[in-house]
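Hello everyone,

My group is preparing for a crystallization screen and wants a predicted model to guide construct design. The compound we'll soak is adenosine-5'-triphosphate. Before spending weeks at the bench, it would help to have a computed complex in hand. I've included the protein sequence and the ligand's SMILES below. Output in structure-token form would be ideal because that's what our pipeline reads.
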Amino acid sequence: MSNVVLHAQGVGKRFGGFTALSGIELEVRAGERLGLIGPNGSGKSTFTNCLAGAFAGHDGAFSFKGQPLQGLKPHERARRGLARTFQLPRPFKGLSVLENIRVPLAYAGRETASDEAALACLESVELAAKAHRMPKELTQVELRRLELARATALRPELLIVDEAMAGLSHAEVDQILALLFRLNAGGTTIIMIEHVMRAVTEFSQRLAVLVAGRKVADGLPAEVLALPEVEEAYLGR
Ligand SMILES: Nc1ncnc2c1ncn2[C@@H]1O[C@H](COP(=O)(O)OP(=O)(O)OP(=O)(O)O)[C@@H](O)[C@H]1O
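Reply:
Good plan to model first. Here are the tokens for the complex, ready for your pipeline.
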């Protein structure tokens, strides 16, 4: 595949004697929408943390845009175009919504760390009207939008969205989905980690399934979800 943006080769992670992730092979193409699913504790966040550089070490390797990521710190990976959101939004609580966006812009040394650039970013997630509010004044769905704005301020090529839908209403899930579709239409490759099955099946062109730290399926959503081993492990049937 010539347009592979991310290649995970034999990625594994142990915590003491416990193997949380083992032998993960995954290719993601530029512009793709991939759903990464699996039961609680199957290794999805561990995979994300390995990819984002949050752990000092892991087995295997990642290449991103054809370059190895090994040895790069999280912020260096971010500067190369790799971004993630966190399951629990992590705004800077003492900063306004607008300042929360200026931080990643300034951190990356962008000349565009201006209020205008930060506002444009907030507009893209329909949060500009709350620019001068504090994070504690935002609703859950607004906090998720702020988390997305923080992650996408640097216009990443690959975005990993870790459970952005948890606890949201049907209509709010649709709002976040619309934002993610728009980002993807603008060229951002997206890996969606999600338990809200309606959202992940609607969004994903392909599903990869982790069970107990191993990838057990990878393919078209309808085909993957029909596999007996996925039904058994993931849906608990
Ligand atoms: N820092 C850590 N130290 C020890 N064990 C850990 C650590 N992080 C994760 N684990 C364990 O690794 C396994 C995989 O966890 P992980 O958070 O990656 O699963 P997940 O698929 O993201 O789950 P969820 O859907 O609940 O978020 C779990 O058994 C978890 O307890």
